[in-house]
Amino acid sequence: MGYTAQVAPYTYNDIMPRLRKNAQLAAATCTGGASGTACGLKWNTGPKFDGIMGLGEQLSALEVIQNTAPFVAPVGYLVDIDNGGVSKSNPNGTGTRGGVHNRNSQYLPYRLRNYDITLADRVGAAIITLVIVVVFALGARFTMIH
């Protein structure tokens, strides 16, 4: 919802009051656990810890609180030449070469080419893949031992 309010400014006035209220309730549930900072998940029951705690609950509370942090009221309009835009347009769209796209330019040697895949290419790819798989397998084995 926070992202929607950011990219669609006309939804800001509908979404942000609800999001702020949820953020307040989410923060109010963060009073549980041994340290008194674990967050609950049931915000609709009021500003109290519900006894359910875990990583998911912490991240849910963080998400709703974080969605309210970067917001200021949106501008509400797109910038164009009549209200603050400074870029000059070129309605002809000709670019710098006057609309002529020369396929035989100095950049022709650098264009992408399709090459045939040879047996050497396949063997090289297989060796590289095998090395990567072995490195990952050894790394996983090493972490299990220690």
UniProtKB/TrEMBL annotation:
It comes from the Eukaryota. The chain crosses the membrane at residues 123-144. InterPro entries: Glyco_hydro_76, Mannan-1_6-alpha_mannosidase. Keywords: Glycoprotein, Glycosidase, Hydrolase, Membrane, Signal, Transmembrane, Transmembrane helix. The keyword Manganese does not apply. One of its GO terms (biological process) is carbohydrate catabolic process. GO terms for molecular function: mannan endo-1,6-alpha-mannosidase activity. This is Uncharacterized protein. It comes from Arthrobotrys oligospora (strain ATCC 24927 / CBS 115.81 / DSM 1491). The lineage of its organism: Eukaryota, Fungi, Dikarya, Ascomycota, Pezizomycotina.
